[in-house]
Amino acid sequence: MTRRISFSLLLAFVLAACSSTEVVTTAPPSTPPMTEDVMPDEAMMDVPMEGEAGMTAPMLLDPDTVQAGRFDNGRMFTFDNPPRAYLTETYGFSPDEAWFEHAHLAALRFATYCSSSFVSPNGLILTNHHCARQSVTQVTGEGENLGEDGFYAESMDDERIVEGLFVEQLIDITDVTAEVDAAAASMETDAERINARQETIAAIQERMEGEVGGSDAGMRVQIITLYNGGQYSAYTFRRYDDVRLVFAPEDDLGFFGGDADNFTYPRYSLDFALFRAYGDDGEPLDTSDFFFPWSADGTDEGELVFVIGNPGSTTRLQTVSQLEYRRDVQEPSTLHLLKTRADVYERFVDMHPNDPQTPQIEDTYFSLSNGRKAYTGRVEGLRDPYVIARRAAAERAFRMEVENDPQLRAEYGDLFDQIAQNRREAGQLGAEFGAFIGMNPGSVVASNTLTRALNAHAHAATQNDQFRGTALGVEDGRPADLERMLIEARLADFVHYLGADSDVVQAILQGRSVEQAARSIFDGSAFVTQSGTETAMGGDLMASDDPALAVAAAIWPSYIQFQQQNGALGAQVGELAGQLARARFEVYGTEIPPDATFSLRINDGVVQGYNYNGTVAPPYTSFYGLYDRHFSFQADAENEDFFGLPDRWLPIPEALDLTTPYNFVTTNDIIGGNSGSPMLNRDLEVVGVAFDGNIQSLPGDYIYLPYQNRTVGVDSRGMLEVLESVYDAERIADELRAGKTMMMR
Asked: pTM of the predicted model, to two decimals?
């Protein structure tokens, strides 16, 4: 198995899976004092350093002596407040307004899940192979296997339209904070304030979109929430809907190393792809005024590198009590969900290797497996006492600022305690959180049968037609064995979290095993199909003996009580977080970047290796390493598929210069959503494309530690080398080189 889709897509799966039960805890500030990054004192604690294994090893430290670093909250700077003074102070580099404008005009959102950029004057777009994977599948014709063989359009006429794919270009930013805050100022309850802000945001978006011509003109306005409500910005995007696939390597190269190498380094992955945007006239888009030229020279160790992209989400500004809730409840439950569902999808693929839906299901498996590995690192990071100690140090510094100002103390002084109490109450619902997470209609981790039945029961119990529509709206199409195993996985969740002796589980299982109960539901429920659901809902649901409805009836009292309590706590903590955000703004302003929100950010770093596992990771890898990895695993049956190379790479092409830098690492600050982000030098030339982080970067959702956090990218020299020497893609290589020549004139 050699496919995956982006980690950003995986996050979309998880967010969709959790949206009905997960408390969205918008991150309150805990800004550190403005000191340089502080590395752990090795004399004070027994802890692995700079990427060594065992992040949660016992530590001997006094938490009160741990200091926060200047950029524990990261360096994901916004284009609202670009880091001019910081860049001058740190690198002696002072870009002007035109530099920042060019930077945001050439950078792109790639659909709703990745980042990308224009890299030629003719609309050529660079992103990751794993962001392009579903597009490759979509344009594959009868008798083709583009995943296995790769794709290259030898002429523009051969470039393939990807229906539904779009990219968005940020063209304007307007601060609308005052208007949003004013709408909520007169409201009395948390829910009223939240609704007022949401209604105002919708109204602003509608008004501003009308002013720029709306979707008919290819324009869209989105209100971006920054600093957890401390700032609201209207981002105006120009959208390009005619996007065509130009080049994608084979899956064996795009995801070389598979799950074994995922989130690791050294790496040898050709994780890039090229598309092209076309205009309304059907001709390649003229991007001569806003593209990043290609650097054939790449970088040197220690060189400054910028990453410009759309990081999905971070929670670096949450309070310690919120992080403890995530450590104890939310993240472990999400990890359990990802583990169990990845196992289900893997079992199906192994059982049905020739099923027509297996390639798509295999993609989902790799996405879930990717998330499983990511969440394992996140949970371990939260369980690392040093990480929590640094977050606590930042929080103490902020609380001291509030306490020392009488006005701030009077208005905001008890917010930390209120948030802590809120999270304690949410923690008491932890069993229900785990039992009910991911029961959303259409979710890849949910049973369609049980989702339909639950919504049907909700309709019967409340006479709310919205539930009826939801039950009927879950479409068919999932293979039978996969659905049966997902029913089984959900019943196992109930046992795991609620307990085998609970009344709910006893009512569901009725003395049967989980496997027996799941088989009975699948074989006997009308809700297995959409048509059966429609028929069942035409009868008396309360009198029905349908086995899936029996499960819904058994969980309904606990489920609805949990939804109500968890929803109220979520609204409360969101409002408290907003208040704390305003306090933070009064203390620190925009000195520290806000949490990631899948909005365009720019961050800085340098090319730098690091120590790990008792050795040293080099700043660059080469094609020598690719072949060494391949040949070293030929006798390993379990992992051979991950390190296999396609025919065009064997024997080694004579023209391929094996010394060419291939993958490399920098200290840039990225997270899911940054996949496909251009990596640029100070002249805004492409020196690489970001595709992953090292295993030590996984706690980056909560804290950025530059001494061990690394971004992994594909080197611009390596990409150009394979286009010319392996894929005979001279047309594209010449276009990239010509773009640099054009910019130099």
From this structure: 0.86
